Amino acid sequence: MEFLRKWFQAGILILTNASWSFPFTRSLYQGPLKVLCSPGLNCYSCPAATTACPLGAIQQLLLSVRMTLANGQFYVGFYVIGSIGFLGAVFGRMVCGWACPFGFIQELLHKIPSPKFSVPRPLRFIKYGLLALTIFILPVVYINEFDMGLPWFCKFICPAGTLEAGLPMLFLQPDLQQIIGTLFWSKFTIMILFLAWSVVASRPFCRTTCPLGAWYGLFRKAKMVRLTLNESKCTKCLECHDVCPMGVKFNESPDDGECITCLKCMNEACRFGAIGLEIGGLPVQAGDIRTKKVPAK
Amino acid sequence: MAKKKPQQPVDKLPLFLISFFIIIFCIGVFYDEPSRVLEQAWQICLSCIGIG
Questions:
Q1: Tens digits of per-residue pLDDT, A199-231?
Q2: A251 vs A51: CA distance, rounded Å
Q3: How far apart, in Å, are the Cα atoms of A76 and each of A32, A136, A205, A287, B44?
């Protein structure tokens, strides 16, 4: 299953960045597919991006919301929120585990041999604050004399934007190198820190900072596809703790907002059939089916 | 006679949320929001990616 997940992640990375004409056009893809929101974090200013980043799109709609409403245009983000809300209600953070290009990049970096460290659990709350503040509140509230706000998360934090868009655009349009300043170097430092952190810790950006992960995490108790725990079969061997890339203690909190439904705990750890998968309350893979296939360690 | 299996209860909350977000999505489409998203996605926002 892990093999299938890796291929799925690679497929999504390629599909959401499938426009390879940029070395010739030296600009962005401008086709109709860009009306679609990508499920995961993928900067739409990336020259190869074929879809829109939902976080970027929401911020752009909200930062100009006063002006558009004054002009009689009702652009308040319903289309984007509807898109990612639908995905959240069906999959929750499974999107992070299976369909996020930046999550995939972090997983690949984590394969580099090095000492590995955990990410302190309390840091997970930061991303919920960032979701509320930088995506929804500040772009609307903090405005200039033209009634326009700023895309706070994209502008000051997003390491995916620096990696997928900022750096490639500097190579494609060398004139831009003349105008980079403190903002670029601060974002570049944030990117380097997260990439380096990804080598020594599993998915640090997803766990601490990603507002999209925070959004999908809100659906932890209300998503169609979820892992379930059969407490009568759980022996509390804690093997599910060891394999989880998000630091979830599954037998203690099966509805944890950090669970990305990568299925490692079900397929690679639990030998007692205590972890199952269900869709809309209906079991599609009960743990006891797996114990027949996989011999005990 | 074979025993009938007890029916699994279907989660209603996700179904409600899915319907809710589909309605929200349709409202966005009705107000022509996709064209605005497309317009923004076609442009390079330099300050958004840390340049300028």
A1: 999 999 999 999 999 999 999 999 999 999 999
A2: 37
A3: 21, 11, 28, 44, 21
Of A9, B21, B6, A210, give the one whose Cα is nearest residue A1.
A9
Task: Give which of A67, A110, A87, A77 is closest to A215, Cα–Cα.
Answer: A87
Contact of A75 with A60, CB cutoff 8 Å: no
Question: In chain A, what residues touch B20 (CB-CB under 8 Å)?
Answer: 85, 89
Nearest chain A CA: its distance from B12 CA (Å): 8
Of the candidates A93, A102, A161, A94, which has an alpha carbon nearest to the alpha carbon of residue A128?
A93
Cβ contact (<8 Å) for B10 and A187? no
CB-nearest to A165 from B21, B31, B49 is B49
**Interchain CB distance below 8 Å, B14 and A89:** yes
State residue A277 phi and psi, 5-degree precision.
-120, 135
Could you give the 3-state DSSP secondary structure of residue A284? strand
A165 part of contact set with chain B, CB < 8 Å: yes
* pLDDT-derived band at B51, boundaries 50, 70, 90: confident
Question: Which residues does chain B have within 8 Å of residue A78's beta carbon, measured at their own beta carbons?
Answer: 24-25, 27-28, 31, 33
DSSP per residue, A160-179: HHIIIIIHHHHHH-GGGGGG
Closest by Cα among A284, A287, A232, A223 to A259? A223
- Cβ within 8 Å, pair B51-A161: no
- Give the predicted TM-score (pTM) of the model: 0.91
Mean pLDDT for A160-165 is: 93
Q: B6 vs chain A: nearest CA distance in angstroms?
A: 12
Is B52 buried (19+), middle (13-18) or exposed (0-12) by CB count in 10 A? Answer: middle
Task: Select from A79, A183, A280 the Cβ nearest to the Cβ of B29.
Answer: A79
